[in-house]
Amino acid sequence: MTELAAMTPVPTAPKRIPTDWKSDLMQRRIRKRYASERRFRFIGLAAVSLSVAFLAFLLITMIGNGARGFTQTDIRLPVNFAQTSLMLDPTALTGPNAEAALAAANIQGATEEAAVAAFGPDGADYISDGAWLSVRAAIRKDPAILGKTVDIAVPASTHIDIAAKNGADPEIRAAYQKLEATGRLSTGFNLNFLTGSNSNDPTLVGIWGAFKGSLLTMIVTLLLAFPIGVLAALYLEEYAPRNRWTDLIEVSINNLAAVPSIIFGLLGLAVFLNVMHLPRSAALVGGLTLALMTMPVIVIAGRNAIKSVPPSIRDAALGIGASPVQVVFHHVLPLALPGILTGTIIGMARALGETAPLLMIGMRAFIPAPPAGITDPATVLPVQIYLWADEVSRGFVEKTSAAIIVLLVFLLSMNGLAIYLRNKFEQRW
Amino acid sequence: MSLLAILFLVLGLGLISWISARMRASRFVRGVGSDRPHSLPSYHGWYVGLWVTIPALLFLAVWASVSPGLISQAVLATPGAANLPAFGMERAAVLSEARAIATGAVHGGFHAQAASLAPAYRTAIMHYGLIGAAVTLILAFAGGAFAFTKVRSDFRARTRVERLVMGALLIASLIAILTTIGIFGSLVFESWRFFNMVSPLEFLFGTQWSPQTAIRADQVGSSGAFGAVALFWGTIFIGAIIAMIVAIPLGLMSAVYLTQYAKPSTRRWVKPILEILAGVPTVVYGYFAALTVAPALRDFAVMIGISNASSESALAAGIVMGVMIIPFVSSMADDSIAAVPQSMRDGSLAMGATPSETIRKVLLPAALPGVVGGVLLAVSRAIGETMIVVMAAGLAANLTLNPFASVTTVTTQIVQLLTGDQEFESAKTLAAFALGLVLFIVTLLLNIVALRVVKKYREAYD
Predict the structure, then answer these.
(1) A:331-370 residues touching chain B, CB 8 A cutoff
(2) What local confidence, expressed as pLDDT, does residue A81 receive?
């Protein structure tokens, strides 16, 4: 026994020298590792900062450009009606034919004459092409001014407007300084920008027409996508049998959520316009197209909200004798509704910012008046931004940015509302 | 009577029948056991109300689509229509003008004949309008009467109503399938017509893209060329290369920093701010790229000595698109890193690795499939993105590697081909649908692969 023990060599591990962390080599290695740790951390911070900085840059550029779009430069134009060629009898403006008389009179020519008389031969270039609209409004308000000399505030032309906002050629700056010296320039809030519609002249454009188009389109989208999305989510989550058909529905919904939006535009063009012959450029078709796009978003959000309602609620309702439909509509749906609404608002915000599919169905027409109904030709806010971005005139730069600010304010407040709802009604079971 | 008036009338009748049936049902004797009424009163109300409205509204919908055809047939049968121009544009113009006069939309007309047809139109509209209204109301009353006789104590109204609700749920979920079929069907159908004019091989592998169609046969350069390789390259160059070079490092490192290093309070603030980047509409990015980024990049290119720099460069569109994608990549990476089991991280830290070594050597390799899936989804989103490239990338189909040159993409060309003057039968218009089909298939494949990768990876750790 002892022999055997003596014969078997005892396995001796090679003598382990403990690492000397204090040695120079190790200290250098640790320093290197810590430096790399700091570098990595810094790169991460830089990535976050860069992304945030880009957002800040984008917003600052838009606000910097767009803030000026909300103001306009006015010229107090002295109009001596007796001196102009305007043939208009004040008494004709009180009767029933007042509008016809106003329409027949050459107010535009008279306004230009007044500008030339006031500011010299270039005078007509200083006032906006639509300055005569202000003159006409003044006459309509008080026909007695005909025959007198009155100061009427009219919008300045784009050149003067840009010069007033510090950015123009020297030549126009000189004209601007000359005007400024007369003390007839004033800068005020551009109310017309919020109440007007599209125009060829940047001093006359407004966003109300496009905004109303957006509103009508969103109403159509919401009325279609919300009920269909919620019902489909309820079916898939609560009732659908596990079979091939249900799988097919789920796969289609998940894929539709990822299909590029322009494909929906092609679908709208081929099906709604060319097969069903619905009116082109109308809010109805835009709403239908966007509803198909938004529905999968609502279904996916709705399913998640329904899934988070605990089964005990269903069991309790079933236990006291509710039918499966009553369980869902009386108990599950009300509890899931905040989550569904959050998803709906996010989906609607996405639809509100969407441009490409609406270009496909012709919502890029020039619409000088707000649409009256869902079958009228209309345009929407993002498309209006796209159209203005293509305009050559420099006056459109600030108007485009101003329209972007309006759009962003709406989108951010919708997203803010969604976050607020989620935080307020979020329930942990 | 107008359609809208009939619609409201039917809905009003439905409401009345709902109330009356509910009242009748509420007077049932409330017995016990088998004498107890089967359904609550409101279910009887719904049963009758739905019988009143649904058949009537279905008929109204059918009638609204059929009656214009019947009206114009009736007008054409009148003697006044005998000497109409035989066919074509003028005939249609006269008819539509006569209709406009008859409905009072316009007064007086361009075609003399239109005015003479207007009375015939007016009587026909009146005639068929009355028929439609009468049948709708008869259906509503018949349905209501039939349903009302059934309101008895032992009638199973709830079962019937619930069966209808289930039907509505099923139809709603089938709309998703219908949409998918609609997209695929319309794209394939129009593309098939395109491929009858242009061979698919030329489309997929040709390098010449100049989609004009000839006005005269002998015109110079009349043969439109539909070789889309340059478009595919431009799409990949902007969406899958330049945008990803921007988005992957920034998105991934943001996610790493926010999940591993940042204090919870910082994270709570920065994450929503990053998500704003995803919520900004693409048209705003496009405007920003065209107005600010592109001119800056062109000046930069000129400064470093690239003379032929375009103001509509691939780089400007790609960079801005990359920024748009950052939150997308970041949130996918966030999810994947969060799914790595905590024990792996703890193990690595316990062995003495620094946090960055843990992230680089343990967390990221473990999360890699999820990150790759996220990147594939991001690529599919980038190549389908439209407005940025429409506004910031050019229209010239160049096969180039120079990021300062102008390239064009599939989505830009779809917009270009379908806006402006279009006649629907031309190869130019149909080419847009062929491009759409390619885009649809590619994004679909990318999504399927990405979702499969992500799913498989999730299962590995569950």
Answers:
(1) 349-350, 352-356, 359-360, 364
(2) 75
Name the residue among B176, B260, B411 with its Cβ closest to that of A256: B176
User: Is residue B410 within 8 Å of B383, Cβ to Cβ?
Assistant: yes
Q: What is the pLDDT of residues A368-411, one digit of tens each?
A: 888 888 888 889 999 999 999 888 777 888 889 999 999 999 99
B79-105 CB burial, b ≥16 within 10 A, e <16: ebbeebeeeeeeeeebbebbbbbbeee
Query: Torsion-angle region of residue B28: left (phi > 0), alpha (psi -120 to 50) or beta?
Result: beta
CB contact under 8 A, B384 and A360: no
Q: Which tokens sit at B93?
A: 């113009």
Is A23 an interface residue toward B (CB < 8 Å)? no
| Closest CA relative to residue B282, chosen from B378, B385, B376 | B385
Please give the DSSP secondary-structure letter assigned to residue A23. Answer: S
Pairing assessment for the beta strands B225-226 and B209-210 based on DSSP bridges? antiparallel
**Regions in chain A scoring below 70 on pLDDT:** 1-13, 85, 87-88, 90-97, 166-168, 427-429
With a CB cutoff of 8 Å and minimum separation 6, the contacts of B65 are none
SS3 label, residue A75: strand
Q: Which of A231, A255, A364 sits opposite B172 (nearest CB)?
A: A231
pLDDT at B85 over 70: no
DSSP string, A251-315: HHHHHHTTS-HHHHHHHIIIIIITTS-PPTTBHHHHHHHHHHHHHHHHHHHHHHHHHTS-HHHHH
Residue A368 has φ and ψ, to the nearest 5°, of -80, -5
User: What pLDDT, on a 0 to 100 scale, did the predictor assign at position A315?
Assistant: 94
Both tokens assigned to A59 = 């917003």
**C-alpha of A395 from chain center:** 20
- Nearest residue of A to residue B385 by CA position? A260
3-state secondary structure at position A355: coil
> B157 contacts in A (CB within 8 Å)?
none
d(CA B152, CA B280): 58
d(CA A265, CA B433): 11
- The residue of chain A nearest to residue B277, with distances taken between CA atoms, is A55
pLDDT band (50, 70, 90) for residue B64: confident
Enter the ipTM.
0.86
Residue A377 DSSP SS3: strand
Domain boundaries, chain A: 71-189, 208-425
SS3 A19: coil
Q: Is the pLDDT of residue B15 over 80?
A: yes
B224 or A346: which carries more pLDDT confidence? A346
pLDDT-derived band at B455 (thresholds 50, 70, 90) equals confident
Q: Which residues of B touch A276 (CB under 8 A)?
A: none
Task: Answer yes or no: are the C-beta atoms of B332 and B377 closer than 8 Å.
Answer: yes
Annotated domain spans of chain B: 3-155, 225-461
Nearest to A270, CA basis, from B429, B411, B387: B429
The domain defined by A208-425 folds into MetI-like fold (1.10.3720)
Distance CA A253, CA A295 (A): 9
User: How many Å from the N-terminal Cα to the C-terminal Cα in chain B?
Assistant: 64
Cα–Cα distances (Å) from A269 to A73, A277, B88, B213, in that order, read 42, 10, 24, 21
Q: Which CATH architecture has domain B225-461?
A: Orthogonal Bundle (1.10)
